[in-house]
Amino acid sequence: MPEKCCYPKRNRKIESLNVGTTATVTLELAVFCVLFPHAMGYFKGGTRLGDYLFYRMSCGFSNFTLYKPYLMLMFLVRQCNMLHSQCSKAVIEKDMAAFRKNSPDQNEEEAVRHAMKHVLPATIPGSPAWHYNALQDLLAVVNENGMPDLFWTVTMDEVSELKWQPVRDMEALLKNFCNSMSFKDAPVECARLFDEKLQRAIKQWLFIKGGKQKGVLGRVKDYLIRYEVQDRGSVHAHVIFWLHDDDVEAACSKIRSCMPAAWDDEAGKFVRPTSYPLAALFFDIVHRKQRHVCTAVGEPDCRHSSPMCINHFPQPQQLGYALQ
């Protein structure tokens, strides 16, 4: 064990700490040797630790992103630093004490939730106030443009024949680190790739020149993106669009004309297209990879032999919804 343990210069008068001393162990000191083994990418001051960790979480194909425990640890440290810098401990404890006094039958977990909801500022990502502000922004857009016209789900689809070439190149590069690595082992790199591809697609094909120029769906007045991560580790996004009133019907008609299948009411299932080979290929891929079923992963079809899925999928066709 080394005689001294280096840590960030929070107090510039102290540059090292003798092992075994009774000095206060800070959060930075506790995690510093774990985050920066062998002084690789060490933090030597001059900037806030939270900002430095945010930068390190963006360094692709490095120890900081490919080793998942580092990502979670860096995120927690950054969130804790933001919490301590923007909301003092005394304010949180005062709110929790008032909650305990007014609600003596509630447990400590409820007191913490109350403080999170009413004390944490909206500047901390993920806090209740932060989500509330995001909701208010969405409601403001709805108040301005009405209800959205289109709902679009986008996925990277790293497992089918439609896998992007950059994903193939990424997985080939990851083999240089470890032969068993796949896209699941590079969450930061996959998220950045997906965001770049999605933003570029929207600006080049849909929301062109701020909605002033027609795209493939006509004139888009505004849009909103929500990113999510599927159970298999794949990033996907839900996007809602507000279209110009004169372009809604044409856009919906164009979408329906591109669907590679038709619904047979009598048979109660989708009919595989036969006139266009490419449409048939898309149908097979979607039916095999993107189908919603109520069974466990890897098990085909539904658990019950009845025609209706226990999750009620597919839903009955909604006639006329596109024009309402």
Secondary structure: number of strands = 7
Order of helices and strands: EEHHHHHHHEHHEEHEEH
User: Overall pLDDT, averaged?
Assistant: 80
Q: So what's the overall shape?
A: globular
Instruction: Tell me what portion of residues adopts beta-strand conformation.
Output: 5-15%
DSSP helical segment count:
11
Say what oligomer this is.
Answer: single chain
* Widest beta sheet: strand line-up: 3-5-4
Radius of gyration, rounded? Answer: 26 Å
The percent of residues in helical segments reads 40-55%
What structural category characterises the helix and strand content? Answer: alpha+beta
Number of domains: 4
Distance between the termini: 71 Å
Main pleated sheet: 3 strands, antiparallel
**Unreliable residue runs:** 1-23, 320-324
Protein name: Helitron helicase-like domain-containing protein
Transmembrane segments: 17-40, 52-76
Domain Helitron helicase-like: 99-240
Pfam families: Helitron_like_N
Reconstruct the topology from this structure.
Elements: E1 4-6, E2 16-18, H1 27-35, H2 49-56, H3 63-66, H4 68-86, H5 89-102, H6 108-118, H7 128-145, E3 150-155, H8 165-174, H9 187-206, E4 220-229, E5 235-243, H10 248-258, E6 262-264, E7 269-271, H11 277-289
Antiparallel strand pairs: 1-2, 3-5, 4-5, 6-7
Helix pairs in contact: 1-4, 2-4, 5-6
Transmembrane segments: 17-40, 52-76
Domain Helitron helicase-like: 99-240
Protein name: Helitron helicase-like domain-containing protein
